[in-house]
Hints:
The structure holds two protein chains of two kinds.
Chain A: E1 15-24, E2 27-37, E3 42-46, H1 53-61, E4 67-72, E5 75-76, H2 81-86, E6 88-91, H3 103-113, H4 118-123, H5 143-154, E7 161-165, H6 173-188, E8 192-197, H7 200-206, E9 209-214, E10 217-222, H8 224-231, E11 235-240, H9 243-255, E12 259-261, E13 268-273, H10 280-287, E14 294-299
Parallel strand pairs in A: 3-8, 3-9, 6-7, 7-8
Antiparallel strand pairs in A: 1-2, 1-4, 4-5, 9-10, 11-13, 11-14, 12-13
Chain B: H1 2-27, H2 29-32, H3 37-70, H4 72-77, H5 83-117, H6 122-149, H7 153-182, H8 186-193, H9 197-210, H10 217-227, H11 231-257
Helix pairs in contact in B: 1-3, 1-5, 3-5, 3-6, 3-7, 3-9, 5-6, 5-11, 6-7, 6-9, 6-11, 8-10, 9-11
Amino acid sequence: MSATRSIPATSPASLEARAVVKRFGRVTAVDRVDLSVRPGETVVFWGPNGAGKTTLLRCVLGVVPFDGTITVCGHDVRRDGKAARRLMGYVPQEIRLPGHQTVSETVSFVARLRRVSPTAALAGLGRWGLEGLAEQRVQALSGGMKQRLALALALISDPPVLLLDEPTSNLDLAARRELMEQLEQLNAQGKTLLVCSHHAAEVWRIADRVVVLEHGHVVAQDEPEQLGAYLGGEALVALTFSSSQKDEAAALLRRQGFTVMTNGSARQIWVRIAGDRKLEPLRALHEANIRILDLELHSAAPGHDGHTGR
Amino acid sequence: MWRSRWFAVMAAAFAALALALSVLGTALVGLAGVAGFGRTTASLLNLVMLIVPLMGLVMGAMSLAGEREQGTLLTLLAQPVTPTEVLLGKFVGLAAALGAAVIGGFAISGLVIAKAGGWAELGDYLAFAGLTVGLGVAHVALGLWISVTSRRSASALGMAVFLWMVVVIFGDLGIMGTTVVLKLKPAQLLWFGFGNPAQVFRLAVLRVVHGDLDILGAAGLYAASRLGGWLLPVLIGALTAWVAIPLTIAWAQFRRRGAL
């Protein structure tokens, strides 16, 4: 993606974050983050669950209190949050809307908040394949349709900056591919995209720059190609089992010397594997008659060991 | 959604009970020989003091806490709005809904009374209705304060019901008990009453309807003699403070807390 567009290095920043710190009690979720994002740049915040990606995105939105300063197109998100948010669209991981409202009521409400004609906003639903669903209740929409609605709402006033929090996490493969194409189109139109993700394939596809977060710190940031070399051959494998076999699988892999993370999931575990051992966990599980229901391979950032492992 | 249904049920119950009281009051005309707004006001007072604070507290408490719990508050605050606008929008909307329910109940009841006893003392009745709206709005503000501090709607509801019991159920008992234990003087008793919006409301309504506060004993007599013509403005000011102070605290905490 970076090869097809040129981002002027001298443009004023879309986003400037300085010494951003966000604490929840004793836990520091975002720790002294500095960041500058140029207009039209696609920056992916990448890291495991709990790294601080979502919290950082919420700080950028100005919807949670934090220390430090963040400006979006020159507007301080704390002092001038309303003006800053007018320039940002936000797509959460799972959009939460009043379920009893219809799609058209929801679109009209957000359009009024963003000073856009509700009629024009409703007319634009066709762009997102939602034209036939205007009178449907939001709670009756499928996950994919909700995500389309979230994107439609985020872009209702055509803001220059778009924030997306794990936008593909609740989508099937086809919907995921479709969303990635839409993001590529938006980026080609010159939108600045800030995306949280832990899906390596997506990161590599759309990112101009990857910011690797670990324990709330920025541990690395570079172009995806450069970062790939930096990360080396290690991988994180997400394995899904039946809930009755998950604990057995995790115990087996730990005995084999792998770092296993559960992240509270009832059925999924994450295994950190050296580049030359990628098949070993699968073989061990197969020999133990533990059935793998799904598998996802991700590249891993350095320094993950143990922090979420249980 | 359930909150709307709950509010509709409470508003209907309030209207039905107010109507029942007014019908009962007018039916007794033959026995007592008098009817009209003044007579019904006295019987409506207890109903109002029981139901309206509960409606206001629960409506306020469930508003932001429910949205925070469902995640819709984050969606809302991600839009180009300020926390102040969101809080004030909630407050105005809830206050308007409660005010409409109260005025609806009073209007139905008023028509029945007027048909039986004429329009005498209508002004007092309207002042009573206005003070009732003020009582409800004060409890909406208190409910919003609870809502801002609560992460879950269940805990907000629990706190709202607890506060309702303190204000309405234990309010009188508390004052009586404290008076006995601490041997409060009438002046102290009066200022103690200002610490409870329901007591402020009751003093104001009795002042409007009866003109004097003999019915409230020494504290009532002291209030009337000490403040004289200023008593009603002071009471209305106190009720306004019971709106403004919780709302200001809620606003400060909401700004500090954000969407989570």
